[in-house]
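Bit of a strange request maybe. I'm writing a small parser for structure token strings and I need a real example to test against, not something I typed by hand. Could someone generate the tokens for this chain?
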Amino acid sequence: MKAIQFLGSVPRYFISQIIGPFYRPIFWSPISNLQYREVPEPPLPNENWAKIKVRYGGICGSDMYMILRPDPAFAALLSFPCTVGHENVGTIAELGSQVKGFREGDRVVVVPTLGCQVRGFPELCLACQRGDTGLCERLAEGEIAPGFLTGFCRDTGGSWSPYLVAHASQLLKVPPAMDDENALLVEPFAVGLHAVLRNYPQDEDTVLIIGAGVIGICIVAALRSLDSKARVIVLAKHPFQEEAVRRYGADQVIHLTRDYWQELAQALGATIRCPPVGKPVVIGGAEIVYDCAGSGTSLDNGLHFTRSGGKIVLVGSAFMPVRLGWTPIWFSEIEIKGSWVYGTELYKGKEIHTFQLALDLMAEGRVELAPLVTHRFQLDDYKRALAAVTNKGRSEVVKAVFAFE
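Reply from user aminoacidic:
Good idea to test on real output. This should exercise your parser:
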């Protein structure tokens, strides 16, 4: 079968990083780490696994960070060559003899985290005991190769190919009435739900969401589907993103214009003070800031526009070193909290996995995310797909996917 794989070659990495700032297509050229090539179907690691025929494979910001700006430190937690893609929906094509409760042909989504149970450990680490498999302490050990998610591990395959494999504990059935587009969006919606449930605002709070891509939109959708009445302000990079965030419940959208700091301060009721030298100081801001952009600029904006005693939640991928002015952290006693993928949540007094909660809320009609899928590509058209995703201002991509028949 044909698949899109990331090779993990050090020489290819350096070539891409040197040429990439001047010529973006180098990242999917013949000399890059990303290659479209013939590979064997991934075999079942053991009888506790299933093979999934992919219907849709989403193109996520985390995938793009690995392609465009990989952090060399993460190579210790990955294994190559890995078939890219963790956002998924498909049908079961093959079942190991120990997989119970599923049949071939069942429509499923795969929870991508590769924790202790997936890796064959009978005794779980502390994180996996809590249900936080994304924080597993054995990501480089066990019966499969290193990797923190499906699509970042050479043994699992990924959704940028016709087939991937998944452990029985990763499988969730898609409700019959749910279409494939909504099912595909379960993964990013679960990311949004996890960030909100672990950092839930008071109804009288003002929330600032930095970034209006899919994760930013899913944060808005998560807040409203969980009945939050907080005031929600979104800082968006592209004008076309405003319609989506307003559709899901944003109260105000501010665009990254030349004077966006002034507009943002006015919306938040904050005051900007300008020193003789250096960056302005902001007094006031939002009680909670969700940074869904994952850049040095977005984090700096978040630190400045978080109210004293408030919290900034880092949701977006930022696999790169960032230089920051740390003064707002100690001077305003700001709490910085990371939010990584999904886990087991406490919802209405009961424990539930974020993926299952996402499926339930979508099945109940609390949120409809299928309209976010704006662009569909065949796998062999991957160069055009990646060019569109890396130039959203021109293409107006919200969510791009690879589609398989």
